[in-house]
Design goal:
Length: 885
């Protein structure tokens, strides 16, 4: 067998590849000769021909694309819109004799060669593929808008509007994308759903050949031209099918509406499903700031805090029923609209966003997978459900891509014909059609279960932030296989299992299991980001290295090679290294954007909570306060708070921004001076003065643990010292009973608000972790007991309080034993099932797994010990934080 024949027989449709090779040998012998010299390029071209007759035809019609692909296939990653615009401009120059709409169709077809090759070779995730396709559409829309605007200006002149002072200025225009393009999840053959907004009514300046017209007419003509250029069906087809039916008033409404008209429509006339559509919306071309102004005015209509979850879910359910009613009866399964299909995954995300996004702004994100991750992190779906939905979405979108790229048609039908299914199975890397059908059934069944659970249960969820982990923990306590057999001896949470899977592509196996590398997991990350050339690449490099290092910790933890204290210490050091790397990214970014140079940013990052005490655990938030040196020099003409806010924005984005490479931590800045009403970053002197003069007692209970963790070392040490001095200075002036009363009030308020009735909450519930935290901090403030700089953990603090006489031996023992049990239980739960304070005591298998990990004889023994310890903790809390009158 020749090497070429071997390549062909390994493809999912060998006959298609042979037919293509025979055709290109006859029609383009020069290109065939090159392919025979470059076997890797031949392999890629034959793969595309085997997977897609459409792309095989593209090569035969445009043989020069083979040389182009030979260059482009070596460039990986997502191609941003800016690069695609440059590429489209060059393509336009070399194809200047063809009509613009044909130019766009050809350019899109050529770029799909590059994108689909990375897809079928497994070199890009589904998110990367759809982002590439979406960026391609954005670039074509932007170029089309430029051409259309040139034509409109030549005819009518430039559109003008008046500002609040009556001065004329240019009017803006924005192409808003909705649906899959709006969330950057476009398919190979998707329609693009658009609406057009212009900034204000007015008139053109009359410098065009046809004189003055109203802005309404100008932008109507402009919109028509954009739709024609992008969507005209002629010759080689359109670049995209443009759907304008989602604009205000649908098909009977004008193509373009003013910002004021558009806002008024969504405020007064739009139906619920029309507002739901705006969840997945953004600016694709034109004036992006115009879209920002629009969305700022209407987002409260989408994410409402005055709508009950029941109403929100009914609205989505009605939308789903309308879609179901429009599906034509067919024997083929529809991977998009069928039961358990892509649309159900999207509606799960959107329903929960509508129900709770009004009170939780962090949920307001258009991308389906990112929104599902955020919903899981805030407890609206559990991590088992997240894993199932993520895997199903990935599988179904890949299947959809395979179906669509066969002939470039907008199809979602999985054929019943066995021979066709067999070919598709090969393209999906399944052994047989039966295995593919089984996988499809498994994934759709998984989606259906979550869909039914969400729409059945969600309206009845109590409170503002329902935590469903307690009743949705899977019956099988070992759903996630270890990433390396023989190394991890326990099931892992979906989050940690994902970390190990991602790390397995980065770390060699020998290094993953090394104790030495575990010990070095918290070393500096600065070099990882310094040598990358732009913001996006720095974020990607930081995330990749972070995943690798966290994987080392997880491996050592799950295999029993590291104890809980070592694991938490390693995670704390990793977080500190990540913060320092994020600050370095911010330093490089402001240096580039503002043309300034800092060897070291005059910023101090202060930690509270688990990070401050050195007890960070899996999926813990980072409670931070950001301060700056008010005397440091900054760029002239820029206010200090503006400059440092920009630095803080870059830093926080580097740590918590969700990209296709994931994110590192959730950042909580709510304990800054004045809370949500305060500035993100505060002058160091202002922060210390706030503690001395304004901080409430409950804030002192938090600030007593403050620790400088990153930034300017000298500034961090100084601010930490001054802040701790201020905390104890303020506390010394507070009456002992007032301090006790306020400590009890805040603790019991959190218990009432956060611990659900009938649920066992090991943090917020009676006798939970917060009893110990609040009691210890109360004693520190009452008696002036400062943390030992080298030993800040809760266990260390309790021991110091006992040694100084602030805490009696009996209560010390009750707190210490209780803390040891609950912190170990919390850690085990995070390791196996993810972050949750609610313990599913009714789930026997889960409790048995936890008991086994903690070396109890049975789940009953663990439950009994926990019940005793919680009673002891609450008794000790009541004695310590008693009001003596």
């Amino acid at each position: 067998m020749t090497e070429i024949e071997r390549l062909i027989t390994e493809l999912p449709d060998p006959e298609a590849a042979r037919s293509f090779l025979a055709s290109i040998e006859v029609r383009h012998p020069r290109e065939t000769a090159r392919l025979r010299r470059e076997m890797s390029l031949l392999s890629d071209v034959l793969a595309l021909a085997s997977f897609s007759p459409l792309l095989a035809t593209t090569f035969l019609q445009n043989p020069e694309y083979i040389s182009w692909l030979g260059r482009e296939r070596k460039v990986s990653g997502v191609r941003p819109k800016s690069e695609l615009l440059e590429s489209l401009a060059r393509f336009s120059l070399t194809n200047s004799t063809i009509d613009a709409h044909t130019l766009f169709a050809r350019f899109r077809r050529r770029e799909l060669l590059r994108i689909f090759l990375a897809d079928v070779r497994g070199l890009a995730t589904v998110s990367e593929v759809t982002e590439n396709i979406s960026n391609l559409a954005d670039a074509i829309l932007e170029h089309a808008l430029m051409l259309a605007r040139q034509n409109a200006d030549n005819s009518y002149g430039h559109p003008l509007e008046r500002d609040d002072r009556g001065r004329t200025r240019p009017a803006g225009f924005c192409v808003v994308s909705l649906g899959k393009l709006g969330s950057r999840e476009l398919n190979y053959a998707s329609d693009i759903d658009l609406l057009f907004i212009y900034s204000a009514d007015g008139d053109t300046d009359g410098t065009g050949g046809r004189g003055v017209v109203a802005n309404k007419e100008y932008f109507a003509k402009l919109s028509e031209e954009v739709v024609r250029l992008v969507g005209r069906q002629a010759g080689e087809g359109a670049a995209y099918r443009v759907d304008m039916r989602l604009r205000p008033n649908g098909s009977i409404g004008p193509l373009a509406t003013s910002l004021e008209e558009t806002i008024r429509y969504y405020m007064t006339t739009a139906r619920d499903w029309e507002r739901q559509v705006l969840i997945r919306s953004r600016s694709s071309a034109g004036d992006a700031s115009l879209y920002s102004r629009f969305f700022a005015e209407v987002q409260h209509l989408i994410y409402r805090d005055d709508v009950s979850p029941l109403d929100a879910f009914l609205a989505v359910k009605n939308a789903k029923q309308r879609i179901d009613g429009s599906i034509k009866s067919t024997e083929a399964f529809d991977v998009k609209l069928g039961r358990g299909g892509i649309r159900e995954i999207e509606f799960i995300a959107q329903a929960l966003q509508l129900a709770y996004g009004g009170r939780d702004r962090w949920l307001r994100v258009p991308h389906t997978l990112i929104s599902l991750s955020r919903l899981a992190e805030h407890g609206y779906i559990d991590h088992r459900e997240l894993t199932g939905l993520h895997d199903a979405y990935t599988f179904l979108r890949r299947l959809e891509h395979i179906l669509q790229m066969e002939h470039g048609l907008q199809t979602h039908s999985f054929p019943d014909d066995p021979s066709k299914r067999s070919v598709i199975a090969g393209k999906m890397h399944c052994d047989s059609a039966e295995k593919l059908s089984s996988e499809l059934e498994r994934h759709t069944r998984s989606v259906s279960r979550v869909f039914d659970r969400v729409f059945r249960d969600a309206p009845d969820m109590p409170g503002e932030t329902p935590d469903i982990a307690g009743r949705s923990i899977p019956e099988d306590p070992r759903p996630y296989p270890a990433a390396a057999e023989g190394t991890c001896h326990a099931p892992l949470s979906a989050h940690l299992n994902s970390v190990l899977k991602r790390a397995s592509t980065i770390l060699p196996k020998a290094e993953v299991s090394s104790d030495t590398t575990f010990a070095e997991a918290g070393t500096s990350l600065i070099d990882v980001v310094t040598y990358e050339e732009d913001f996006g690449k720095r974020l990607a490099a930081l995330r990749a290295e972070w995943v690798s290092r966290l994987a080392l910790i997880v491996k050592a933890d799950a295999s029993g090679r590291a104890d809980i204290n070592s694991v938490k210490a390693a995670q704390t050091k990793l977080a500190e290294a990540s913060i320092s790397a994020a600050l370095e990214i911010a330093r490089l970014e402001v240096g580039s954007k503002m043309a300034v140079s800092f060897d070291e940013l005059p910023i101090a990052v202060l930690a509270l909570g688990k990070l401050a005490s050195g007890g960070l655990d899996y999926e813990s938030d980072l409670d931070l306060i950001l301060t700056f040196d008010g005397n440091a020099e900054i760029p002239p003409g820029v206010a200090a708070i503006e400059f440092y806010s920009r630095v803080a924005e870059y830093m926080v984005t580097a740590l918590s921004g969700v990209t296709r490479h994931g994110n590192l931590y959730r950042i909580d800045l709510r304990l800054r001076p004045h809370g949500k009403n305060g500035t993100t970053v505060t002058a160091a002197s202002t922060f210390v003065d706030y503690i001395r003069r304004s901080a409430a007692i409950w804030e002192l209970l938090a600030y007593v643990k403050v620790r400088g963790v990153s930034g300017s070392r000298g500034l961090a040490v100084r601010v930490e010292g001054d802040a701790v001095d201020a905390v104890f200075e303020r506390a010394s002036a507070v009456d002992r009973d007032d301090l006790a009363a306020e400590t009890r009030r805040v603790r019991l308020k959190l218990q009432k608000e956060r611990a659900g009735r009938g649920e066992l909450d090991i943090k917020y519930g009676e006798g939970g972790m917060l009893d110990i935290y609040f009691a210890a901090r109360f004693l520190q403030l009452r008696d002036g007991i400062r943390d030992d700089p080298q030993h800040r953990s809760t266990a260390d603090t309790l021991q110091k309080l006992r040694d100084t006489g602030s805490l009696g031996e009996r209560d010390y023992r009750l707190f210490a034993d209780g803390y040891d049990l609950i912190s170990s239980l919390d850690h085990a739960f995070r390791l196996f099932y993810g972050r949750s304070t609610k313990l599913p005591v009714a789930n026997v298998k889960v409790m048995e797994t936890l008991a086994d990990r903690m070396e109890f004889g049975s789940a009953e023994e663990l439950g009994e010990r926990l019940a005793i310890q919680r009673m002891n903790i609450r008794d000790a809390f009541d004695r310590v934080v008693a009001i003596r009158g």
